[in-house]
Amino acid sequence: MSLFDSKFSTACPGCGQEIAAKIVVDIAGKNTIISNATGCLEVFSSKYPDSAWKVPWVHSLFENSAAVASGVEAALKHLGKLKDIKVIAQAGDGGTADIGLQALSGMFERGQEILFCCYDNEAYENTGVQRSGLTPLNTNTTTTPPGKESVGNTRPKKPMLEICAAHKIPYVASASIGFIKDLKDKVKKALSIRGPKYLQIFVPCPLGWRHGPELTMKIAKLAVETGLYPLVEFENGKLTSAMKIPQPKPVEEYLKLQGRFKHLLKNKQELQRIEETAKANIESFGL
Amino acid sequence: MKRFLEGSRGVAEAIRLCKPGVISAYPITPQTHIVEDLAQFVADGELKTEFVNVESEHSAASVVLGALATGVRAFTATSSQGLLLMGEVIYNIAGMRLPLVLTCANRAVSAPISIWNDHQDSLAMRDTGWIQLYAENNQEALDFHIQAYKLAENKEIMLPVMVCMDGYILTHGYEPVDIPEQKKVDQFLPPYNTSYKLDPSHPITMGHLAEPSCYMETRVDIQNALNRALEMIPQIAKEFGTVFERNSGGLVESYRLEDAQYVLVAKGSLAGTIKEVVDNLRKKGKKVGMLRIITYRPLPVEAIYQALKNIPNVGIVEKAISLGAFGPLFTEIKAIFQNKKGNPKISGFVAGLGGRDITRETVERIFSKIEKRQMDLEFIDVKQERLNEFVRF
Ligand SMILES: Cc1ncc(C[n+]2csc(CCOP(=O)(O)OP(=O)(O)O)c2C)c(N)n1
Ligand SMILES: [Mg+2]
Do B55 and A33 touch (CB under 8 A)? Predict the structure, then answer.
């Protein structure tokens, strides 16, 4: 039986974040305490008086998931229970890379025994698909709409993996629900390592990205296969693995399935820029 | 054991005796000495606690929230901007019914930046569901922390307590204080024990999403608990008196009110100054007195009414202002007398903002003002020439 009971979840059909969160908690097992930031995952899993969570779970605020988890960890240490109980902090990309970045950095620097999972759906989905620091270049969001003077989000995705790795914590990795085995392996590995860990999981959002719910897994694969979402691992600040993509797929294959990129398909120049992003990833991570 | 100590050290001693399992804080003047002393206790092995150094007050408050959610007693302290930065978490801690004890070393709020004392910071947290106690002196500051844990953790209450002490005046002032024996504190304050916690053997969900069908009841439940605290606070003070053999705590303190005609109402260390003035004026035959608000939230409505109902002239002196309206305590005390028998003439005075001295002479002047006429709001000791020199926009 899963530790995430979907019966009490109100997630949209095809929600990638729900799939990922379920995998994470089931691998972690019942001796786990989860601190969850405000965002879609919190909202769809904890409507009073119900809860999808079969492990102790706490939601406090948007930006403080890492800090609340730090308090849980400190309390467990005080009680002498930290060996038996795992602590997971989780948040969306906004709760991680933007408003939650300071608390996350503090948690890393204190060396706390916590796995932080970022469910990266590349926008503030819960509040209606606004841009976040992890929204990719040229994406159409409600705060970066394309128009006569705009092709969408003007900035590239914030390099969160490198930012986390620069803290020289024992483990930093990216994963995608398009590669379930790899994701599971990384969750297991992260939980077997002492100290702070960071796992960023690519989770498509059918509503926000405007694609059919049946395409969630396909899109989650294509993001990796095009080179746009490299699956990598850093240990103690050093890149130690990258999933190879010897024959990268053209980025259009990925983009054309999603309404958020529709405006790009006839724009050669901007498509070129996305292509270059993929190329740069392939080069720098040796994909 | 009586020792001559800085107020901050007294608080640190109280916290050591209460044995929190997690302490987290971020430095801000004038709170710093409290947490520095605690860090030293931990370093010296005198206090077995996880001392979590964080990157902000927002995280300090979140860390102690997490610790309490895990069922472990916790402590933090802050002032001014730090308390404001915690603001979001302050509401959360009360809403989640976590019995935190926090010291607010009261300090003015920016801008302009001021490190000196007034009550604007804790006032900004007045409506959060926290219990607020205001200490007059360092002995009280020490005692109130011990009582605060007992109150907060009471199963009928389960709400956080903010112990407010005037920045510098108390935090950095030296006074002889009695430090209780550990044995007595243990007798008075049992270990924190709750089933409302994050525990894999009984998994619960904390911090639900609440739809309109249930949010309002969460507020009513806090209001009810605060009403129970009005009964609990005097009981705890009484029990404290029995164990530690001194009077400390409660809702309000009446000072020479028996036949008084002119009474000032205040909170915190200012009450000490007012008491001296009352004694002096009494010697001169003036029928003056003072009412001190110890517990500001929950507001002890009945105790205030009983204390003031036969006093013809009352002046509220406060170190905070609801800008655009009145002094907050003035507004609240006026409201208590609306539609009640006995209706004192109540005047409001705002004094001591940003650390401006409130001297005995100032207090005497305020007493003579309430002899004359009623006024809703008067700022005390304001310099007109300073106002004139400010840049106009
Ligand atoms: C301090 C604060 N600011 C803003 C919000 C509003 N808010 C709630 S969830 C959310 C977006 C969450 O985005 P993300 O972290 O990416 O998670 P997602 O919903 O996309 O899974 C925002 C902006 C809030 N709750 N708290
Ligand atoms: Mg998101």
Answer: no
CA separation, residue B163 to residues A116, B73, B241, B264 (Å):
34, 16, 19, 22
pLDDT in tens, B217-252: 999 999 999 999 999 999 999 999 999 999 999 999
CATH number, residue A14: 3.40.50.970
- What CATH number has the domain spanning B252-387? 3.40.50.920
B22 vs A contacts (CB less than 8 Å): 71, 74-75, 78
Q: List the CATH code of the domain at B2-244.
A: 3.40.50.970
Q: Is A40 in the pocket of ligand 1 (CB under 6 A)?
A: yes
pLDDT at B341 over 90: no
Read off the tokens for B68. Answer: 């309490």
Number of domains in chain A: 1
Phi, psi angle pair for B313, to nearest 5°: -130, 120
pLDDT of B342 over the 80 cut: no
User: How far is residue B289 from each of residues B252, B259, B260, B294, B306, measured CA to CA in Å?
Assistant: 13, 9, 6, 16, 14
Report the mean per-residue pLDDT for chain A: 98
CA–centroid distance, residue A131 to ligand 1 (Å): 11
Q: Sort out which chain A residues have CB atoms less than 8 A from B96's CB and list them.
A: 60
Residue A159 CA to residue B170 CA, distance in Å, equals 48
Structure tokens at A112: 């706390």
Confirm whether A180 is domain-assigned. Answer: yes
ipTM value for the complex: 0.97
Confidence band (pLDDT; 50, 70, 90) for A47? very high
For an interface test with B, the pick among A26, A70, A105 (most B C-beta atoms closer than 10 Å) comes out as A70
- List, for residues B139-187, the tens digit of each pLDDT value: 999 999 999 999 999 999 999 999 999 999 999 999 999 999 999 999 9
Nearest alpha carbon to residue A270 among A282, A248, A252, A257: A252
Q: Which domain holds residue A29?
A: 6-285
Q: Where are the domains of chain B?
A: 2-244, 252-387
Ligand 1 site-directed mutation target among A96, A99, A127, most atoms within 8 Å of CB: A127
* 8 A C-beta contact, residue A67 and residue B69: no
Provide the whole-model pTM. 0.97
* A240 within ligand 1 shell (Cβ under 6 A): no
Q: How far is the CA of A38 from the centre of ligand 1 (A)?
A: 6
Q: Please tell me if the CB atom of residue A93 comes closer than 6 angstroms to any atom of ligand 1.
A: yes
A78 in contact with chain B, both atoms CB, cutoff 8 A: yes
Confidence band for A227, pLDDT divided at 50, 70 and 90? very high
Q: Is the pLDDT of residue A93 over 90?
A: yes
Q: How far is the CA of A127 from the centre of ligand 1 (A)?
A: 6
